[in-house]
Automatic annotation (TrEMBL):
The gene is ubiX. Gene3D superfamilies: Flavin prenyltransferase-like (3.40.50.1950). SUPFAM superfamilies: Homo-oligomeric flavin-containing Cys decarboxylases, HFCD (SSF52507). FMN binds at residues 10-12, 37, 88-91, 123. Flavin prenyltransferase that catalyzes the synthesis of the prenylated FMN cofactor (prenyl-FMN) for 4-hydroxy-3-polyprenylbenzoic acid decarboxylase UbiD. The prenyltransferase is metal-independent and links a dimethylallyl moiety from dimethylallyl monophosphate (DMAP) to the flavin N5 and C6 atoms of FMN. The keyword Flavoprotein applies. NCBIfam families: PRK06029.1, ubiX_pad. This is Flavin prenyltransferase UbiX. Belongs to the UbiX/PAD1 family. InterPro entries: Flavin_trans-like, Flavoprotein, UbiX-like.
């Protein structure tokens, strides 16, 4: 069984977090651990009309973001990777600089130091130089920076379909088997 941490910060993008957790829940060989930042509560309500309990219900285990003694805060606790989706610029800065103040930040820091996969799904536009530098620092530390940029060649024509395709790309980074992506096979006639 693979153990995956999902951190949800207070950035816009809660439908994508819901999609990710739903697809993880459908994988029987995955145990998901949710860390929901305090800022995510209001954004979840504003964007989806949902209470935090809706996300908690999709995860196998939920951890209180204020509890810095929880299992994901330790490198000795084994897991197979972490996704922060969406990743606010504040969380990105905390992760990039190792100056975290909650369990989400600490778990990401531990994931980096233990050389496990860390996927950050930043949600901001336009990006300032500070944002870009923080992304570079996080990438240099080992994180994968993966903003939601749909693969339009997939033929998906709904937001749900595009989000599912993107979740498949996240699963690829985590080494999880899935059927969410239409894989590029080249153009039908062999030319572009």
């Amino acid at each position: 069984m693979k153990r995956i941490i999902v951190g949800v910060s207070g950035a816009s993008g809660m439908p994508l977090a819901l999609c990710l957790l739903r697809h993880l829940a459908a994988l029987p060989a995955v145990e998901s651990h949710l860390i929901l930042s305090p800022g995510a509560h209001a954004v979840l309500e504003a964007e989806c009309g949902l209470a935090p309990s809706a996300l908690h219900a999709l995860a196998d285990v939920s951890h209180d973001a204020a509890c810095l003694g929880a299992a994901p805060a330790s490198g000795s606790w084994q897991h197979d990777g972490m996704v922060v989706c969406p990743c606010s610029m504040s969380s990105l800065a905390s992760i990039a600089t190792g100056a975290g103040t909650n369990l989400l930040h600490r778990a990401a820091d531990v994931t980096l130091k233990e050389r496990r996969p860390l996927i950050l799904v930043p949600r901001e536009s336009p990006l300032s130089r500070i944002h870009l530098r923080n992304m570079i620092w996080a990438s240099e530390a080992g994180a994968v920076i993966m903003p939601f940029m749909p693969a339009f060649y997939s033929g998906e024509d709904t937001l749900e379909g595009l989000m599912g395709q993107f979740c498949g790309r996240i699963f690829d980074q985590l080494g999880l088997s899935h059927q969410l992506c239409r894989r590029w096979q080249g153009p039908p006639d062999g030319t572009i």
